[in-house]
Amino acid sequence: MTVAAQRSAASRLPHRQLRRACLPVIAGTALATALTGCGNGPETASATPNSATSAAVSPTRVAPTTQGTVPPVTTSGSADCATDLSAPEIRRAVATLPPYDAGGGDTWAWNDNPPALRGTYNRCSTLSVVVVTIQRATASSPEHALLFHKGDYVGTATPKAQAFTTIDTGAGTDDTVVLTYKTPGSCNACPDGTSTTVSFHWNGSGVDMQGRPPIN
């Protein structure tokens, strides 16, 4: 919400295309170009990382698709600009996500219950995010980061679910969402894990991703 080679290609998709697959974030031929960036530089992709990059990376554009430290939450239906994790737009966005495939024929539905959500969603933000996890989740369960522009869902930040996703509200702005993904080391809570910071910026017609998440 792992790439051996660095990437630098960027594809641009119109805002309304976001409601198809997984923000280039989801998957597909045209979606093949995604929000992936190289560890050392920005990239432009649709919400699905898959373009090779060199050490110096240029921003990746993220186009729309279908498929924590947070401000106070208000009740659903509020017309102001406060954070509202019970907004119906969030429930509708979660409903577009296919069940998480845990393997062995097991699937898990995503949890749209407001107390289980983390995020900055409000209808006035140029770009906001909501992190959703599966039902009966544990600390290491998969999560998807859902991106919204002025209250409208534009797609997931990454085509595949990630675990240990943190919203860096201190680094984010009205038009930029910053997420930190943790890759566990010898154990989930061990200090030898690594963190990857990725930013998502609204460019006026879509989302540019700078950096590359650990799972693509």
TrEMBL record:
Stretches for region Disordered: 42-81
Keyword set, alphabetical order: Cell membrane, Lipoprotein, Membrane, Palmitate, Signal
Organism superkingdom: Bacteria
Pfam family, one: Lipoprotein_21
Comp. bias regions, Low complexity: 44-75
UniProt-recorded name of the protein: LppP/LprE family lipoprotein
Organism: Nocardia nova
